[in-house]
Structure formats: structure tokens, C-alpha cells
Write a structure and sequence with these properties.
Elements lengths: L1 E6 L4 H13 L3 E4 L10 H13 L5 E6 L3 H7 L7 E3 L3 H9 L5 E5 L5 H13 L6 H13 L5 E3 L3 H11 L5 H19 L5 E7 L4 E7 L4 E7 L3 H10 L4 E2 L1 E6 L6 E7 L8 E5 L2 E2 L3 H12 L5 E8 L1 H10 L4 E7 L2 E2 L5 E2 L5 H6 L3
Parallel strand pairs: 1-2, 1-3, 3-5, 4-5, 6-16, 9-10, 9-11, 9-13, 13-15, 14-15, 15-16
Antiparallel strand pairs: 7-8, 11-12, 17-18
Helix pairs in contact: 2-3, 4-5, 7-8, 8-9
Amino acid sequence: MKIAIASDHAGFEQKVQLAPWLAEEGYEVLDFGPSSEDRVDYPDFAYKVASAVAAGEADRGILVCGTGLGMEMGANKVPGIRAAAVQTPEFAELMRAHNDANVLCLSGRFVALEVNEELCRIFLETPFEGGRHAGRTAKLDRGCMVEPRVQVVRHPLVAHKLSILRGKDTPTKLFRELIRELALFLGYEATRDFPLEDVEVHTPLETMTGKRVAGKKVAIVPILRAGLGMVDGLLVLLPSAKVGHIGMYRDEETHEPHEYYCKLPPDVDQRTCLLVDPMLATGGSAAMAIEFLRKAGVSDVRLLSIVSAPEGLEEVLASDPTVRIFTCAIDRCLNENAYILPGLGDAGDRIFGTL
């Protein structure tokens, strides 16, 4: 079992003792710092450990600060994390057995090292009971979308523009502009991990080594018709991308998707595909579109939706094991007509003025 561990300056003394102790206990230890007792900010180290656990780079995480509380708050900001600050063996057992916690937060100032060692032992050896607790942890997961493959774009301008977009009196022209702008934000996040390579650049003053994207080819594939509203924003960011189209409509009674058109670039299997649709509601259309792309040989599919429902996210994630989803908001639920609440209405009608 791989254990990611980190601390701040207040927890440093215990961290440097817990790490070798864990190694002696037979665990593979990934020490994310710090390397000295110099003053640091605990959120930076909480994020490092929590991100490693959420990404599967480590099986569990252990964080130490003065009280454990700051680390707990920081770690729980990362999707995929259930962190708890505990100071008693009973709580350490329950956080695993009932809550399936994956990050333990310890107090380096108020709890002795021997006690914290015991808390670590219990945390690492206690299994999750499942049963009635599984449904409850699933609700936790839905509530904050605890899933490493889902990324919510959190930016003040995104929140601002999304609030205007939702308004029922927002005119068609402004609605289209906001869809295009939010698509650009989503594209920025969805391409954040594109690899770079060195390139020689001649500035007006000297020659330097800069960076450029290393050979990534992209296809933008809107799900018709609403997805068309996002294409221009993404082409501003990726002007050399090819554009495919997948046409679907939803049966108004069964809410099931039906395909009526599909045209993809001939080399789509060699491209990263950004599949775009402003609304991820039931997830049926998106799941079907992803299946089309997989059959066409696409290995890297990234779904970009401005507003998503928990039901749609669950459907898409369950239907495909590697798709990644980028969204500006995860709303509350679907209503009886499979519309997202609070949502923003019918995105296609609002983009094209066909209300």
C-alpha cells in the first residue's frame, strides 16, 4: 500500500518520524514535504497529498499540522477525498469503517507521537464496512462529485458569467456570447495537461528557449444542435482543430437519445477529442456519442459541458472507464421531465432563439 504523507511547519517534527515508521511497517511512503521546519502554508501540502490520493498515485494519505483541522479543510477541497481530523482510536476506526476515509489528518502539537502512530495503524488496517454505509458515502460523492475524472472549473469569472447565463431574461445574443466564453474557459482547463516541447524563439532582443504544444492534434465534436454554440469559443483557443459533428435528438416521452447524423474527421483516431454539449442531463446522448468515438478508434475523449446533473455524470462515468469530464457547475438534480434543476432551460432553444 502506498501512503502519501506531508505536513506544515507545525507538524514537521512528527512527520519526519512517522514517515520512516510507516516504512518499517511495510508501507511504501511518498513524502510530499516540506523538507525543513521553515514556515509554510498548510493548504499547499494538503493539496499535494490529496491530489496524489485522488489521482490513484497513493492509496491513502496522512497529513500533520498543528491541530489537523487546517489540513482536513484543505484536503477536502480536492474532489475524490474524504479526509478527517481525529485524535482518538475510536474515531480513527469509525472514519474508515463507516466513512471510507482516505486521508487521515493528525495534530502534531496536541497529540503525542505514540498516539498518532496508533491512529495511523488503525486508519491503515481498518476496512470499510460497506452495507448501509455505502449508500451514504455515495451521497457524499454525488454531493461534491467525488470523482477524479470530473473537474469543475472554479473561477470568479466563470461563476459570474454562469449566473447571467442562467437568467430567464438573458437575451439570445448575450446567451450565445456567454456560451462561447464559458466554452473557452472549459477548453483552457481541458487542455491544461497537453505536453510541451522546447522551441527556439528569436525575440527583438535575443534568442531564447520557449515552449510549444508537442504534436497534440485535436478534434472538437459538438453534439447537435446545442453543442454548436460552444465550437467558436474552442476554436479561438485551438484554431487548427478539426471539427466533427454528432447529431442526436431526445424522445420527449422516454428521454432516450436517438442518433440521426455522424461525421468525423478521417484521422479522428489520432486526435484528442473534445466532445461538447452545454447540458449534461441524463447522460444518454453523451454516453452514446462517446461510444461512437470509441468505435472510431479515439482513445482520449474529454467531455465539456457547461452545466451537469449528478445523474448524467454518473451515467457517463459508468458507461466509459476513461472519459474525463469538465464542467462549470454540478447542479442539484433532474426534474420529472429530465431537465436540470436549477439549470438554465433548453440550451439549444436559447442559443438559436427557437423558444
